[in-house]
Design goal:
The chain is 21% helix and 33% strand. It has 185 residues and is of the alpha+beta class. The protein has one domain: VC0467-like. Strands 1, 2, 3, 4, 5, 6, 7, 8, 9 and 10 form a 10-stranded mixed sheet that branches. Strand 2 and strand 3 form a beta hairpin.
């Protein structure tokens, strides 16, 4: 049965000592959570490249590309705040959209109607099969948090994991200060 605490538009925070290098200290925006599986994108793992380096002939845009997750790393995805301009976009939460007409996206970028402040590109995605994510949460691998529009379009990736943990408050504020390497303590 689907876990109602996890919904489209929430974020998952990796527990502080997760060993999986794909998800260590990651913040994952959930885009789908259904009975048959879940899908999201890691918001804080930049690949230090531009989309025009990955797609030949793509319009110049200074928006960095992020590692979305270990599934289908031969695919490109995009999250944006221009759903009113880009047909076939799926609304994740108010003001945040996933995908849309790719040819129209290129035209909007060429005409500077979409700029780096409006979009993030991802290589691959994070995916979980039926019940897998629910089990990982039961084991304590993930903390569920509310998404803030600024996490995606304003804050950037620097210390995003700590910022989101602190925003949760209580014990999570303490967890946010746990060093990445316990020997640094």
């Amino acid at each position: 049965m689907i876990d109602r605490k996890i919904t489209r538009g929430k974020v998952l925070l990796a527990e502080p000592f997760m060993l999986d290098s794909n998800f260590k200290r990651s913040v994952v925006l959930m885009c789908e959570h259904e009975d048959d599986g879940s899908l999201g994108f890691i918001l804080n793992k930049s690949l230090n490249m531009k989309i025009s380096e990955l797609i030949s002939g793509f319009p110049e845009i200074e928006s960095p590309v992020y590692y979305g997750g270990p599934v289908q790393t031969d695919t490109i995805h995009y999250i944006h705040n221009a759903g009113h301009l880009l047909e076939d976009s799926q609304e994740i939460m108010s003001g945040v959209y996933w995908g849309g007409d790719f040819e129209k996206l290129k035209a909007l970028i060429n005409n500077q109607l979409i700029t780096k402040e409006n979009i993030r590109f991802f290589v691959g995605y994070s995916g979980w099969s039926e019940s897998q994510l629910k089990e990982e949460i039961k084991l304590g691998s993930w903390v569920i948090a509310d998404m803030n529009f600024n996490y995606l379009f304003k804050d950037g990736e620097l210390d995003l994991w700590s910022k989101v943990m602190k925003h949760k408050g209580d014990v999570f504020s303490v967890i946010a200060n746990v060093p990445e390497q316990i020997t640094w303590n």
